[in-house]
Design brief:
4 copies of one chain form a homotetramer. The first copy, chain A, is of the alpha+beta class. Chain A has helices spanning 38-48, 106-113, 129-142, 170-173, 183-199, 226-235, 256-259, 305-327, and strands at residues 5-6, 11-15, 22-28, 65-69, 71-72, 75-76, 81-86, 148-156, 159-160, 205-212, 240-245, 269-270, 273-274, 279-285. Chain A contains 8 helices and 14 strands. Chain A has a 5-stranded antiparallel β-sheet with strand order 1-2-3-7-4, with helices on one face. In chain A, strands 9-8-10-14-11 form a 5-stranded antiparallel β-sheet. Chain A has a two-stranded antiparallel sheet with strand order 5-6. The two termini of chain A are 29 Å apart.
């Protein structure tokens, strides 16, 4: 299986270049009989779309999803669901074939493939992530209704959210364009990002994802453990450079008796399998790679963290749905 | 593909329970004509084996590998290589069916599968990792000769190595039983682990892996990027709870202009593809889960970090060999 | 990997229902740098298209391919190639939800999935095969230039072609709408099919495929032998009910000394691997399943054999390209 | 996934050379809780074993299976089941490195891999099929109890069984060493094979497989249809050169109205999915390739058809179990 298909029981195959005709996703393995609509995709894509606020890129894309197959009379058929999004606002003239942008994948792609679509990064563009969001829509519908996946901005630059409610909904997180639920910190972040936009600087940050309602038993030893699938899928998103489950790196300096006195540090996963508690993952983003200085007039975000929240939620949903379906094969008596 | 096969172009399928008859690995996809011997496996397994020093578990296993297939007249045949290790020193009487050890996978396995091998964790035992080491031996032979993969103990508990040479060899790292190349810190770690062994406490830590000599172009966008593969493989090892590439979480608080002024923070990977620089991964281990208090007389390490070094090297080798083979399919003119 | 992806090194993922918005194929694993154009797809699809002659269905579909990704400046990028074909002439009114057509998959789909697209068979329609033809275009371009794949009608009903030239080209085969290169027999077939069209009867037949120019060594023991991949892919086409390599069933009654006195009966495959000779496969089609009597006004072919020729060629090309790419991984010295 | 793993939901990975240390199978994806014993494997292997009667090879192999993992207290654990069989009666001296046996895979393996185990065909030996039988044992246990898979010899050479009971059991078929249930024909076959043994000649034949008790709905459109999976698995067995489902090639000359007047000709599969009727497959074997004249003193069967019956049954069981497990993922309400 090649590089553009993800998953085993629920798979997505994605395609498309940033300035090509269209991007899209084919979802295979979705059971039949699930209610699914055009609106579901529109809603999800609008959460990732550029041009949403003053702190994001000025690139305006309607990102209108078109369902090509797999849904009939409002319900899934059990056949592949194909959804495409045509590219519209492509300012190719901002780019040229000999432009190798620092901090981008331009150089390694050129070396690897010999021939590349130099317009806006081609397939290495962050625009590729909309395909993941499309897949996440289907995955979310497959998951049991009491499962919720909520990501939020834990930090951007040196600003770290402190006051986070014990429970969170997507709606609450989306209230602020930074997707940071500590609104005091959120305001500081906004100011800093606006300044970055002016100066051509950029910031990284940390997204935290909470997965609630997952029963004991999801995860496939020994190579498709929940923690492997989850972190690998999150790490695959552009600019991600670190992932943690539960206490992560801070667990390394705790003493064992203390650490194991509660289940909390484990982040909901034991032996690679869900243990019934909330699953907590933290994801590190390095500072955005395209700065004002190295694209001709490239229109990019000073920080991709806020817009990456729905992308990470989608990846988490895909992994969880895959492992949820897999549990149907665990025992003979099921 | 189910949970016990790893890889796409080079695959390993592993099997075996901690106190069953044997553990083993089947490696498929190894090209023909590679020199490979019994000794190669023995050497690698001896680096992971328990009972090596005062700071590891007292369980004594010869861990004698037996090659069943795939090698003829000292060279690989291009057919599957099967290697098994029989279990010998199994004190099953240390365990009982109703013993659910805290911090272990016992409970979630029981819930997931309904039926489990309760002797020493069965397949969830750390002993499973010897199968990964077997796979790593073959992977290492496939990699170009100038590629080197060296892991070392960066920290255990609160003790962090500071003085690390710019270049390291496995031989140098193995000089100290802690596998910490800062020998001053290594001595402190040794003392602390001996104390843990007495008190029944445990420690976690961080392993750092350096991958040298990898040319530009390894990694398969968009779902089998080098960073995703590494994360999946490293995170899948028991007790691992975090992975970073390059600067990882510390990159999140740097400003973009500074971060992108050098290539170093990227840890050798750009756009998910190797960029020709050293690849650097950091791997967090939570404190060892089996403490003196919750196994009857379970003989376990106070810290698994030193013994995990060759396991992580093996996993890294498997991912790198897989992606190296994949590059043969990148272009038509190759 | 689910049911709508085919291949390992070169994969196609197909989607689309007969009367839905569009059908399409995503091809992953195509190396970069291959010249490929819109015209290549158009030409291939026109060979499969309905409405070509008096002996095929009256359904008129322009079957205009649209390339969405993976090709830039006339050459492949090494990224997924997505090509879609929109449905146009969909007379859904010919069908109704409660119509279960005899000899069709309607009933088993209903039972399997609970919910189905009842318009023209939905995804079980023969129209699905255009997606395979799209994949075959890319596969053909990957194969070495001296490889040729030519299929032709060996028989329809009781009419069996006898005079077949020793070498054949697609152009020669396409000269007659029946795709039978024995033009005397071809004329008899034409007459019979016209009669069938009037009477609402149908005919099956045999397609023979010749694969020339394949060197020794293609095929992956023990489960991806050339003969497994080839016959499985051919058998997967609708209405196919038998496949043979070389002498096939007639080999079963020959005595061994005679059979093995030449290489011919082996059909170019030994031990599951190509032996350098012409590869010969024969494919049996049962009579077309949709008769005048059981679709309302369903417009269907009295015999699908002629139109199936390019579909089988496409499937053969996909298998061969997959195994050709795989040979790059056979040895270390390559 | 490389060449030595088969299946998606239930996978087998096999290894081993004819004259190496051992052959074996790792079965992954078997649900937990299934009763399985050493005896199950012994019984199945004894049906394939050489040296059973005067008409088979004189090679004597105890073929003693050893279970290494995956079973505990008589039941499957949901972990990989590894079973090996050591080679014992290996007369390597019968072979030499420069011996290229006509009709064998020796030549193509040499060309493909450059290095091969020349002793008895190495991995290309028919001995490899014992690994498939091991897998079939597990598959059979997974299938619902009312499913039965029975293969029998339909013909050998020119002798075709005519009187076949409407229902058959394995026990009945095994009553005659030819596995031909028409005992009059069976006797003729016996005589001819004994004559072949003396003269160094060989015979091919046809095995027919009946699969009973399979409900509607097994098979995954469009690339993992039941007929594709069966063909791939049956065709992959050495010396097989043709596969038919239902009427197969004889359907091609029937007229459509007649053919579709009953369901029988379809052989239990419609649109690639089981339709609730008995599934019937016919499998053609070319004459055995190793004749007295071209191995030094190679001890081989004049006809492998009788011994191949349990091998084909095993492959059918593997495909059916895989597709049976897959149906658990078809719908949301299951």
């Amino acid at each position: 299986m090649r590089g553009n298909t993800f998953g085993r029981f629920l798979t997505i195959t994605t395609f498309g270049e940033s300035h090509g005709v269209a991007l899209g996703t084919v979802i295979d393995g979705c059971p039949s009989g699930i209610t699914l609509s055009q609106e579901d995709f529109e809603k999800a894509l609008s959460r990732r779309r550029p041009g949403q606020s003053s702190i994001t890129t000025a690139r305006q894309e309607a990102d209108k999803p078109e369902i090509l197959s797999g849904i009939f009379e409002g319900k899934t058929l059990g056949t592949p669901i194909a959804v495409i999004v045509r590219n519209q606002d492509q300012r190719s003239s901002d780019y040229s074939p000999d432009m190798i942008r620092q901090g981008h994948a331009d150089e390694v792609w050129q070396e690897k493939f010999g021939h590349r679509d130099w317009r806006g990064g081609g397939r290495s563009s962050g625009r590729e992530t909309l395909c993941r969001v499309i897949g996440g829509v289907v995955a979310s519908k497959i998951l049991p209704q009491n499962v919720s996946i909520v990501g939020f901005t834990r930090s951007i630059g040196t600003h770290v959210a402190q006051k986070i409610p014990k429970m969170l909904t997507i709606k609450e997180v989306d209230r602020h364009p930074t997707r940071c639920p500590d609104h005091e910190v959120a305001e500081k972040i906004s100011k800093e990002l606006l300044a970055c936009k002016t100066s051509g600087d950029s910031r990284g940050g940390i997204i935290e994802i909470w997965m609630n309602g997952i029963p004991i038993g999801w995860g496939e030893p020994v190579f498709h453990k929940l923690k492997s699938g989850l972190t690998s899928s999150l790490m695959g998103v552009g600019a991600v450079c670190g992932v943690e489950i539960g206490d992560g790196f801070s667990a390394t300096s705790q003493n064992g008796n203390l650490f194991h006195s509660t289940k909390e540090g484990a982040g909901g996963i034991q032996g690679g399998i869900s243990n019934g508690e909330r699953i907590v993952a933290k994801v590190a983003f390095k500072p955005a790679s395209t700065l004002g200085m190295n694209a001709k007039k490239g229109r990019h975000d000073p920080c991709i963290v806020p817009r990456a929240v729905p992308v990470l939620e989608a990846m988490a949903a895909l992994v969880l749905a895959d492992l949820y379906l897999a549990t149907r094969l665990d025992r003979m008596d099921r």
